[in-house]
């Protein structure tokens, strides 16, 4: 539906739950301003015209940006641009309005939401607040009320959670005036400590730990609140400062990691609302947020460890995906730098940026995480703690606001609690934690593997590699010798096999390459490197990280693992060193430790050269005496434990993936656990369950 012909046309897209059928020949509808005063008062009638299946109108003022005072209304009410009254001829039939007779011509269905759904007006979002219908002598009168500061519906107009601007996609960028009018700065003796949110004209909601970590007993006289201000330093004149009369931390709070990290601060006197200062909506205990959708966090926190936000300290905003406690703990359990088990507790909620590259820092604590619903912003969480500055590779942990609705109501009279305008169904975000090292059900060790990548330089295949995070590849150091600059490299991901041909779903360039500093040549060890992708990938069934092993991880020697390669089955040409070459994929091998490998590898050396196989190396041989296989440098050696795949090694040297009497040699990944952690904080890890037995490495030869 569009209004006004020509260059200034604005468009409405209606996405709806029942159908309003309008005949193509029904050329006139009415569109009116209205207010409610002793029933329904119609105002400022405009005509709507149907042409070529598009509803157009001359109601320019209806969608204008200015407030219009309707002097012809009995109530003389000021109404913002957000009310439409539309009338068509028809009869109500089972939730569908249909043309009254065939003389109107073929029906043109227009889908409309059954109350409180989205209407988009030229890039700006508004919401329906309600639907009323009135029967008149000629047919059905349908009222569509766009949610504004005034509305006619069963749900009352809300005085909270409104902003003047729509937020931008961002990651730690400056906010604009009017975006977050509920955001406040909590300051201790003039210094910014935490964020908070305005929830009434005299109460601030924040985190309890803000008041306990300054090192002095809680004294309201030491604190002040800055409201309505974007910049904390410089010549910012907007906004106001208020002293604090009362501070109420949760009575059962002891430490932020144990939950109940919530507190209230009361201003010495109420504030007046304006464009820069207005409250956020608080959810009631039965409120359902849509997990997996984007919400927003704002604050004046540090930009890095011990690096304050530079002057003029402009308010920052970042979009983060909301997630449940279970998903949060699932993601956290795969992180290398985890400190506690299942840190997300009942009464908490989590959020994380999709690329895991950004997040909150010191000074952002206490700030609100807000989610948009039907034109209103509800506070889903209170920023509590995260992984730390510069290590934004895991979830951010927040106090779940709705879990403390009754606690807030006990202390706050007149808080901005609001009913959910359109209750949401229970949602799941389990897809956000696919876990590392997991294959979809119909996949086997033979692949294709979702973690395998093809490293190409100037269009030519050079090495294989393994995806260990959304943005990190683990491979061999020798791949980059002489070409260590990121320029010229390309990574292919998401391998698929079609008619024995390889196809790839995605490609990335490289941002940086990190080769182990001790690497000289493969036979001396340290053959390991990490490549960072130019931008992260999104995990799916065909693109996913493998689990990296901790240093204490024990791979049972002698057990079955898999390497990337092409097996060569014997045939009539086997004796001539040839055979049937299989498609690329997983090849089953037997794992050897350095002692057994040392004996076998050097005893069969073709040149009498003895190469020491160190504890930082692993070896593997094919299971069949009659089989050998081809493998590429950098290809992964992977082992399965109770359905989870771990990266045991990186193909380094030897004859492909080896023969029974001549093992292939791999860099042992667990031996470089600390180095990987230093260069790939985002890597996924897992602990085998149950724990694996200590590996045995008999000093015996295979021949």
Automatic annotation (TrEMBL):
Coiled coil: none annotated. InterPro entries: Peptidase_S1_PA, Peptidase_S1_PA_chymotrypsin, Peptidase_S1A, Trypsin_dom, TRYPSIN_HIS, TRYPSIN_SER. SUPFAM superfamilies: Trypsin-like serine proteases. CDD domains: Tryp_SPc. One of its GO terms (molecular function) is serine-type endopeptidase activity. It comes from the Eukaryota. PANTHER family: SERINE PROTEASE 42, TRANSMEMBRANE PROTEASE SERINE. Belongs to the peptidase S1 family. Snake venom subfamily. This is Serine protease 53. It comes from Anolis carolinensis.
């Amino acid at each position: 539906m569009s209004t006004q012909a020509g260059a200034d046309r604005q468009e409405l897209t209606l996405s709806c739950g029942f159908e309003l059928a309008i005949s193509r020949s029904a050329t006139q509808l009415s569109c009116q301003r209205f207010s409610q005063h002793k029933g329904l008062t119609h105002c400022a009638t405009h005509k709507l015209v149907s042409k070529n299946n598009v509803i157009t109108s001359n109601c320019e003022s209806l969608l204008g940006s200015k407030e219009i005072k309707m002097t012809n209304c009995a109530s003389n009410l000021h109404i913002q641009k957000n009310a439409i009254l539309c009338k068509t001829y028809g009869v109500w039939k089972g939730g569908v309005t249909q043309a009254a007779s065939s003389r109107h011509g073929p029906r043109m269905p227009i889908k409309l939401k059954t109350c409180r759904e989205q209407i988009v007006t030229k890039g700006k979002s508004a919401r329906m607040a309600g639907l009323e219908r009135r029967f008149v002598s000629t047919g059905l009168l349908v009222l569509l009320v766009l949610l504004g500061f005034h509305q006619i519906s069963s749900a009352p107009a809300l005085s909270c959670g409104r902003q003047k601007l729509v937020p931008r996609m961002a990651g730690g960028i400056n906010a604009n005036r009017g975006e977050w009018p509920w955001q406040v700065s909590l300051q201790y003796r003039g210094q910014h400590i935490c964020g908070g949110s305005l929830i009434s004209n005299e109460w601030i909601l924040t985190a309890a730990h803000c008041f306990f970590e300054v090192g002095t007993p809680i004294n309201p006289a030491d604190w002040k609140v800055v409201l309505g201000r974007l910049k904390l330093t410089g010549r910012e004149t907007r906004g106001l400062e208020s002293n604090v009369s009362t501070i109420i931390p949760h009575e059962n709070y002891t430490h932020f990691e144990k939950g109940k990290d919530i507190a209230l601060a009361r201003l010495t006197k109420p504030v007046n609302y304006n464009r820069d200062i207005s409250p956020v909506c608080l959810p009631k205990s039965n409120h359902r947020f849509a997990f997996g959708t984007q919400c927003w966090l704002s604050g004046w926190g540090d930009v890095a460890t011990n690096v304050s936000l530079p002057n003029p300290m402009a308010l920052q905003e970042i979009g983060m995906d909301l997630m449940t406690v279970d998903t949060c703990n699932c993601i956290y359990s795969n992180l290398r730098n985890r400190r506690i088990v299942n840190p997300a507790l009942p009464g908490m909620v989590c959020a994380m940026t999709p690329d895991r590259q950004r997040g909150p820092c010191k000074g952002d604590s206490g700030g609100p995480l807000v989610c948009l619903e039907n034109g209103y912003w509800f506070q889903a969480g209170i920023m509590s703690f995260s992984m730390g500055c510069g290590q934004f590779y895991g979830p951010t942990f927040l106090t779940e606001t709705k879990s403390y609705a009754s606690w807030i109501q006990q202390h706050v009279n007149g808080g901005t609690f609001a009913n959910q305008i359109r209750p949401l169904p229970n949602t799941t975000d389990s897809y956000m934690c696919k876990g590392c090292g997991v294959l979809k059900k119909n996949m086997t060790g033979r692949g294709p593997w979702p973690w395998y990548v093809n490293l190409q330089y100037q269009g030519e295949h050079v090495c294989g590699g393994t995806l260990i995070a959304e943005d990190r590849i683990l491979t061999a150091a020798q791949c980059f010798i002489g070409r260590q600059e990121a320029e010229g490299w390309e990574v292919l991901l998401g391998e698929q096999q079609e008619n024995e041909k390889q196809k790839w779903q995605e490609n990335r360039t490289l941002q940086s390459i990190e080769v182990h500093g001790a690497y000289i040549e493969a036979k001396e060890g340290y053959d390991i490197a990490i490549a960072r992708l130019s931008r992260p990938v999104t995990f799916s069934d065909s693109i996913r990280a493998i689990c990296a092993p901790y240093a204490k991880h024990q791979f049972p020697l002698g057990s079955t693992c898999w390497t990337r390669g092409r097996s060569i089955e014997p045939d009539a040409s086997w004796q001539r060193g040839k055979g049937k070459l299989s498609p690329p994929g997983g090849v089953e091998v037997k794992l050897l430790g350095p002692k057994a490998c040392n004996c076998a590898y050097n005893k069969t050396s073709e040149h009498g050269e003895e190469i020491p196989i160190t504890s930082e190396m692993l070896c593997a041989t094919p299971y069949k005496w009659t089989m050998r296989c081809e493998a590429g440098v950098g290809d992964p050696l992977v082992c399965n434990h109770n359905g989870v795949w771990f990266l045991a090694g990186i193909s380094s040297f030897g004859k492909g993936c080896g023969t029974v009497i001549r093992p292939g040699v791999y860099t042992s990944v667990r031996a470089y656990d600390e180095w990987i952690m230093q260069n790939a904080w985002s890597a996924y890890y897992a602990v085998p369950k149950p724990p694996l037995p200590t590996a045995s490495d008999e000093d015996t030869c295979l021949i």
